[in-house]
Amino acid sequence: MRDYGRELRFGVSVAPLAGEVESIRRVVRAADREGLDLVGIQDHPYQRRFLDTWTLISTLVPLTERIRFFPDVANLPLRPPAMLAKSAASLDVISGGRVEIGLGAGAFWDAVAAMGGPRRSPGEAVRALEEAIRVMRLVWSEERSLRFDGEFYGLAGMRPGPAPAHPIGVWVGAYGPRMLRLIGRLADGWVPSLAYSAPERLPEMHDRIDGAAREAGREPREITRVYNVEGRIGADGDGPLVGPPEKLAEALSGFALESGMDAFVFWPQGPPEEHERQVGRFAGEVAPAVREAVQGERARRPGAARTGGGGAK
C-alpha cells in the first residue's frame, strides 16, 4: 500500500478537436463552475483534426475564473523550451497564476519529422528533456542574462521575462526507467495515463522515481502524481471507470490510497454531447466521494500520510 498523503485534485481533459469548439467551451466552463481543479489538453500538433493546444488554452482561460490549465503533455520536439517557457509565463501572468506545464519528450517520430522537428533516439529524448527543464527554469528565474550550452539547446545572453505569476510546475509524461529517474531527480510531477500504466505497474514506477528523488536529496512526497483516466459515468460496460459514480469513486480511492496517485484527470468517453453532463457528475458525485473515502482512511491510519508512502506496507 502506498499513499503520499498529498491533497487530492481532480480535473478533466478535453480533446482539442477543431470541429468541437463549442462543446469544449461548455465542458471547460462546467469544470470551472463545478469546482474542478485542472483542465489538461493533449498536444499533438501533427494531428490534422486538432487545434493548436496553446492557442486553445489561451482562448479558454478568459472563460474561467479559478481552474488551472496544462498541456497534457506538450510535445517538446516541436516546442523549443525557451519559447515554451516564455509562452507559459505569459499565460500564467494573464490568468493570474493558473498555468502548469505538462512536458513530453516526444512520440510519433514520423509525424514530428514531417513538421520539421527532430527525430530522436530514446537516449537523446531523455537528455533533451532534461536540458529543456533546466532551460525553462532559467527562463523563469530572476537572472538578468541567461546562458546555457547544451547538447540540444542553448541560450546566449537571453533576457528573461516576464516572470510567471506563481512557481510553474513541470510535470513530465513518461514511462521508461530513465525518464522515471529523471522525474525523481528534477521534475515537479509525473503524468502517466491509465491506458499505458495500469495500477499494478505503478509501484515499480514509483520506486524508480522515489529512489532517484532521495539520491538527489529530494522528498518523494513533494512530487505530484497526476493520473489520466478514461471513463464513462452512467454507462454499462467493463473497466474500473465505466459505470455508476460509486464504482468510479471506489476505483479512484484505491488509486489514491494503494497506488500513490493524488490528482485525477478524467477523460470522458462517449459522444461529445454527453461530456458536459459527465463532467458535472464527476465533479458533483465522484470527486466528493473519493475525498471522503481517502480522508476517512487516512484518519484511521494517519501514519500512511506522514510517511510519504516510502514503500510497500
Automatic annotation (TrEMBL):
Chain positions covered by the region annotation Disordered: 293-313
Domain Luciferase-like intervals: 13-228
Transmembrane segments: none
Top-level division of the source organism's lineage: Bacteria
GO MF term (any one): oxidoreductase activity, acting on paired donors, with incorporation or reduction of molecular oxygen
Protein name in the entry: LLM class flavin-dependent oxidoreductase
